Structures are given as structure tokens and as C-alpha cells.
Amino acid sequence: MLEKMKRTHQCGVLTRENLGQEITLMGWVQTRRDHGGLIFVDLRDRSGIVQVVFNPEYNREAFEAAKEIKNEYVIAVKGKVNERPKENVNPKIKTGEIEVYADRLEILNPSKTPPFPIEDDIRVDESLRLKYRYLDLRRPTMLRNIAFRHEVKKAIREFLDNNGFLEVETPMLTRSTPEGARDFLVPSRLNPGTFYALPQSPQLFKQILMVAGIEKYYQICRCFRDEDLRADRQPEFTQLDIEMSFVDVDDVIALNEKLVKHVVEKTLGISVEIPFKRMAYKDAMELYGTDKPDTRFGLEMVEVTDIALKSEFKVFSEAAKAGGKVKGINVKKAADLFSRRQIDELVEKAKEFGAKGLAWIVYSSEGIKSPIAKFFSEELLNELLKRMNAEPGDLLLFVADADPKLALTSLGQLRLHLGKQLNLIDEGALNFLWVVEFPLLEWDEEENRYVAMHHPFTSPMDEDLDFLETDPSRVRAKAYDLVLNGTEVGGGSIRIHRTDVQERMFKVLGFTKERAWENFGFLLKAFEYGTPPHGGIAYGLDRLVMLLLGLNSIRDCIAFPKTQNAACLMTEAPAPVEPKQLKELHIQINN
RNA sequence: GGCCCAGUAGUUCAGUCGGUUUAGAACGCCAGCCUGUCACGCUGGAGGUCGAGGGUUCGAGUCCCUUCUGGGUCGCCA
Predict the structure, then answer these.
(1) In a domain, A223, yes or no
(2) Are A186 and A98 within one domain?
(3) Which nucleotide is nearest to A182 (CA to C1')?
């Protein structure tokens, strides 16, 4: 009986330093190149790949055994590290200067032929990758993504630990609260007819931890929202959740800038300049048509409502008269880039984004080409061109809408579309931006009442507090979002810690005192016992990792993500359960 | 819930105007040969519910309807 083999080295880290050493490797067979009288095997483990040579003149037994192995077999190889002859060096792999002469081979486990090749840059349907996720994760890129995610979390914990934060866990089985996203519900066996909800975030618990005197809390925590999926949205996702006592907006922002700087520098080795730029919500909407502007390129929107009002173009003047907005974008030097047909495509795009239409002016060297020019006097047209900072060669695009927000958001989306289409985006950039001074409240047409834009515990700005009842929509919140390259990666606020303000807030939201206590009583009760001023932030960790890695989908940095139907193709969850289980839960399925 | 894209061999795809025989190619797989490959090479071979159901037609991978799955997006996501 041969003695049991013990792994001594990793494949991918072997170098000339190891020449002459007797080593034992364990890993997966990447490829076997069988020359009849000589067999090469690329052996792969987490660290990388190394070439193993099976030569009957070196060891016949190992050579014979190597005839049996196939791709993805798990094997153990004992052998000697040798220098490759100069002409056989492979510069494409890190271990290309050496190879391992095998004198013993053991097959630890065979493998079926994988349904797709285990290598990078494969073009294979994502659903197949998800079904065989364990094979997909063997691919170097995926392994790198998972490892990078680990590094991000490590850097976060390192920074927060150094700054006096305690990681505290909060319940996954909690109660459903109104407002916000749809909850995932868990039926209670012991309490028939009642349900837990999985947390949308640890929001209320972290505030209670502030009442509890924790002062500095964080948690890397799974959160759940039963809403439709997107490339950057999963029903279960990971938050970095932070809360601090005795702080105001600037304290939270300053700490988080240092945190982000630390994380990016530790993981990517890229230096990050702080403080980040700050932009008021109002400016973000006016200039970019979104509360998460991508500032990696220009094409800012220009206000032309006042000029539009004076024109004979009814679409413009009537939108302006109705209290709406007319906004324009100057696509510099694009007059020749867009044919009439391509401009029509832009019009269609704008409509997809909700605009009623898209007006355009081609300012070429031969003059103005535009279906709307005839509605403008020469003087007014010149005023418009001047406002738009237009020069010959520019393409001007305008959206008008009686609903000012729709004018902003539709043109804002068109701006993003143009940025991508014209390749204006510097993919290597990391543009961090704080969006601040969010409105506290938003009018909800469906519910016919104001709803909290952030959540009902967000503090109004002190200078706006007086308008809470008289002019709710003008009240700004002590809320802030961290935006990276046009994606919201974090958001938070200073919370209300005064009972009277909280009661006024609930009142504006249309909650009776009874209903507020019914839903949030545990929090309101806690607030009666000495609540420190506090505030915090929550990051979408998956998104942050996605953006730092330059991925297109959050799924590529989550080990086991779900599909657009919120299904796991590997486990085939969700799935029916036994009638007995339902009975125990007092649940009846209604078809 | 709306809109858009895709679905043909294990994989990635081609398949013209609805009709040329048994639906092709590459890679992978299987067998044989091969001592310096690393996208090894050479020879041969197997492999198909054209996502599913219905319809139009003398005839459907191809046209129509429904549906399922995957992806993108709007709504939604405090």
C-alpha cells in the first residue's frame, strides 16, 4: 500500500525558485495533451495552472495512469520541478518557465465532461452557467470576482474596526412594516395566521442599537426585497449597514469618504481623492435628469423654458405655460454624426424614455436645419443658440413636457444613451459623488398622500422644519446618496430623534398615532428612553463590488445569484413543498 | 403588468423566398495513431423532441397564434 499523498504546493505559484524540489500537487485537470509516448497535463487549482509531464522514461507507472485522466478529473501528482528547455517556455502562463515531472499519479475523483469549457472568455448562455454554477465558479475570472469581494469585505471590516465600530447581527425573522418594498414573508408555525418578514434592511434595529448605546455599529448583512430584478438588483442582496450616534451629515459623509478611499486603495490599489463632490438633488435633476448622475461625461441639460415660452412652437410654449419644463442638450460636434434617420432613432429612444417627443436643431456650417426653427424669430433663435452654447457643427436636442419631472428624466435618460452611443464614458474612471438635500417627501398619486422619499425616520433639514405642515414638498431631508459612475451605491440619512418631530412626520404621512404605534411601536417606545442624535448609511455591497470590478451585472460577483424570475437554476428554488409542511404552517394554496 | 431581444447537436452558431435527398459547421465527446505540446497534430465515428402546444399549407426549423425559459428595460425598488 502506497502512503497517502499530502499536498505540499499550489500549482499557480511555482517558479524557478522551486527547481529541483520534490512536490505534491492536487487539483483539477485543465487539459491533457496526449502525444502517445508523452502526456502533458495542465493542472489547475485556485492559484493557477502548471504543466505536468508524464514520461514513460521518467516513470512508466505514472505515465500509464495518466492515460486514464480527462478534463476536470481531480488528481494528486507527486513529482519534481524542472526547468523547461528554453524553446519550450510558455510565456502565456505564470508558471511557464517550469514544469513538473510526474513520478506518481492518483485519481482522487473522476469527472463527467463539463457542459461548457472551464475557461475565461467563453460565450455560453448564462442560464447554463447558473445551472452548473460550481463549474462556472471554477473559471479564473469568476474566482477572481469572488476573491475580490472577499477583499472588499476584509478592507471594510479592517477600516471600521480601526475606527471603533462594532459588528452586531440583527434578526432575519422580523416584522413586516408598511412603506417601502414588498416584503418576503415567512409564516409562523407557532403562531397561526401570523408572519415574519425578512428584513429589507436592518434599519429599525440599527436605530435601536443607537438607543442601546452601541454608538458605532456596522453589519455586512443580507437583505431581501420582493421586487422585480435588474442587472444591478437581486431579491436578496448584501448591504454594508452603518449607524453612528452624536453625528450630523458632515460626520457621516467624512467617515464614509475615508472608508471608501481605504477600500478602493486596498483592493484596487487606486488612490482616491477625498472629499467627494457634493450635488444638491435639485441640481442633479436639473442638470442630469436623475438623482444618480453619471458625471464621467458632460452633456449637461440646459434650462430653456423661458425662451420656449416666447416661441410660436406650441409644444414648447404650452408645456412652459402649463408649469412644465423645456430642457436642451448640446451634443457637441455631432451635427455630422447623425443622419436624419439616426436623429429619428433618437426621437424614438426619447419616447421610450417617456418623452412626448424630441425636438432637434442641426447647426451645421451651412446653417440651421430644424423642423422647429420656423417657430422662432431670428432673435429668439439666436438667444436659444447662445443659451445652448451652440457653435456650428453642434446638434441640439430638446424635450418639453407639462410635467417638469418627466421632461427632466426623459432627457436625462437620453443623455445617458448618448453618452454610451458616442462612447463619451471613460470606463476606467471612478466618479464618486454625494447627492444631498433630497426632498423629505414625495407626493404619491396612487395613495393620494405624501410618502417618505427615504424612510419615515429621516430628519428634515433644520431650516425647512417650519414648512413640514404648510409646504411639505419644499422640505429637504438630511439625506445623502453616494453615487459611483451613475449608480447609487449607498444612501442614508440623519434620523429623527425627537418624539415631537417624529409625530409631526407621521402626521404628514397620513399615519394616525394609533397606526404609527401599531407598526413602529417598538421603535417609538425605545425612543422614549434617551435617544442620541444618530444617522448612518447603507451600501449595496454587490453593486459596489460590481462597479469596482467593472462588471455589467451584479450576478457576476454573487456566488449563487437568481434569475430574472427570482429562481435559482442550480437548486431549482423556489419549489413546491409537501402538503404536510403547509398544514403545519396553517397555509392553504389558492389556485 | 408593459415593451424589446434570444431559444436548432454537449457548447457556440449557420440554415436564403416555405420545398434538393438523411437539418450543416466549428469546438467538445468517443475510438485509433503520435516523445515537446501548451488552441497539440492526423484518421475515423457517434451525437438533433429545431424550447413546448396549436394553427395555416400539398409541404413548416422557416409563416401566424398561444405558452415556457433566459436576458435587457419601463413600471416597481421607503
Answers:
(1) yes
(2) no
(3) B77
Could you identify the residue written with the cell 434592511? A201
Q: Which residue minimizes Cα–C1' distance to B27?
A: A117
From residues 363-402 of A, list those within 7 angstroms of strand B by Cβ. none
The CA–C1' separation of A195 and B78, in angstroms, is 21
Are A304 and A402 contained in the same domain?
yes
CATH of the domain at A35: 2.40.50.140
Strand A277-280 to A432-436 pairing: parallel
Looking across all nucleic acid strands, the nucleotide with the smallest C1' to CA distance from residue A41 is B38
- In this complex, the nucleotide whose C1' atom is nearest to the CA atom of residue A115 is B10
Tell whether A147 is covered by a domain: yes
- Predicted local confidence at residue A173, as pLDDT: 97
pLDDT at position A591 is 65
- As for how many domains chain A has, the answer is 3
Residue A44, CB, strand B, below 7 Å? no
Residues in A 346-365 whose C-beta is less than 7 A from nucleic strand B are: 352-354
Backbone angles phi, psi at A410, to 5 degrees: -70, -45
DSSP A350: H
Q: What tens digit of pLDDT does each residue of A184-202 get?
A: 999 999 999 999 999 999 9
Q: Are residues A154 and A272 in the same domain?
A: yes
Does residue A12 lie in a domain region?
A: yes
Q: Residues of A from 176 to 195 whose C-beta is within 7 A of strand B: which are they? A: 179-182
- How far separated are the first and last CA of chain A, in Å rounded? 63
**Strand B and A90 CB separated by under 7 Å:** yes
A375 vs A316: CA distance, rounded Å: 10
Judged by DSSP in three states, A132 sits in: coil
Q: Does this complex have an ipTM over 0.90? A: yes
Alpha helix positions (H), A1-81 = 60-66
Where in the sequence is the domain holding A268, given as residue range(s)? 143-279+432-557
Residues 411-450 of A with CB under 7 A from strand B: 413, 442
Residue A307: inside a domain? yes
Do A416 and A450 belong together in one domain?
no
